[in-house]
Amino acid sequence: MVLVFLYFALFLIVHLVAKQFKTAGAARLFQLVSCFILLFGIFGFRDITVLNDTSHYYGFYYLKAHLLSYKTEPITTFHLLDKFEYGFQILIHLLVQYVSKNPYTIIIFSSLVITIGELWVIDKHAKDIAKVCFYMLVASLIFTHYCVIRQAFALIFFYVAFGYLEKGKTGKYYLLILLAGMFHYSAFVLLVLPVAIRIKPSKRNAAITICAALLLAVFLFEILSLLGLRDHPYYQNAVQKGALSMIGLVDLLFMCAFLALCLWAQKLNQAAPMKPAYFWVFLTAFCVCLLAPVIYPISRINEYLWPFMIFQLLRYINPAAMRQPCGQPNNKANSLLRIMVITLFAIKLIGINTIRPEWLHVDDYQFYDFSKTHHTYNLYPQE
Fold it and tell me: What is the rounded CA–CA span in Å between residue 46 and residue 43?
């Protein structure tokens, strides 16, 4: 983990160097280029042993690239047995037929798209790009986004859609979420946000929503069974386990700590109440965490919400770094809050790497060896 935190420190160095520029435009360009190199250079050329799902996508691409029928059939062909969403299957067809048969194509292409998407949304919300990248890395968000490739594509659609949601342009929002759902079905849950933000943010409505989430958690298995999902692997695994997910409970505890810091920061800075979109993002994320101990994979929904929650927190505790600050730049308490937030994120990252090292595989980081003619990992022999 030492090398990982040294990597994080490089973003703080970029932040310090950028402060020496006399013009904001030059500082912004320097940060964008530097952060792109740091992110794409590490994640775009990682070995297939780095990050949990890398080898699975690599192996899937390899198998498809070696099927003659896949290389000649229409790109709109859908394979039900592949169990991947239609949009992602079209993308693989395009890459295999028109870009390269090399299985590493999906890793380097997805890393390029994800890097551009992450820097785009950070630049849209923050003035200090490198510092916000640092927070998102310590929070393990960026690691996860490069890992869950299909959902990361969906997330980028949500990044664009959220801007329309804030402006009340729900038609464009729904269209983008439908496109996101073509890459990962979990995105369809985001269709409820335009309805939710029409409800006035209040303690009463928050309490009602939380109670509804708790009630849903109690009867979740029965509801999923009625929906015909009894045979789904996530349902079966949760039932067979016969106990609450410990990882889900830890996630809930972490979310409670994060929300407590947000509320404390809002109070100390005497900031205005959150905008409705952010209020419901926070509340939705908390409700998802209430369900996670029952069926942990449902927590994947929060991958869409975490970036915007971090942006809002940083508006309180590091307002100078954000485009729409909510806090007081000279508030001495913000320094303490920043230390607490970084510590909280670091504890989570270290915990993941200790308890679930298979999720990241970053301790023994390696670059992909393009000179090798044979790669074998996770049942996928590559020659």
Answer: 5
- With tokens 């890097």, the residue in question is 115
- Distances in whole angstroms, Cα of residue 128 to Cα of each of 99, 211, 256, 262, 319: 35, 38, 27, 20, 10
64 phi/psi in degrees, rounded to 5 = -70, -40
Q: For the chain, give the number of residues.
A: 383
Cα 339 from chain centroid?
23
> pLDDT tens digits, residue range 107-156?
999 999 999 999 999 999 999 999 999 999 999 999 999 999 999 999 99
In which element (H, E) is residue 375 found? strand 375-377
Write the CB contacts of 83 (distance below 8 Å, at least 6 apart in sequence): none
Token code pair at residue 295: 């069926």
How far apart, in whole angstroms, are the C-alpha atoms of residue 303 and residue 68?
Answer: 36
For the CA atoms of 330, 332, 338, 340, the dihedral, rounded to the nearest 10 degrees, stands at -170
Residue 328 contacts residue 269 (beta carbons within 8 Å): yes
- Residue 139 structure tokens: 């929070």
Q: How many CA atoms lie within 13 A of 303 on its CB side?
A: 27
What phi, psi does 46 have (nearest 5°)?
-70, 155
Residue in the block written with tokens 């729409």: 324
CA–CA separation, 291 vs 165, rounded Å? Answer: 25
* Higher per-residue confidence, 239 vs 74: 74
Separation between Cα atoms, residue 26 and residue 266, nearest integer Å? 32
pTM beyond 0.70: yes
Q: How far is CA 281 from the centre of its chain?
A: 14
pLDDT over 50 at 194, yes or no: yes
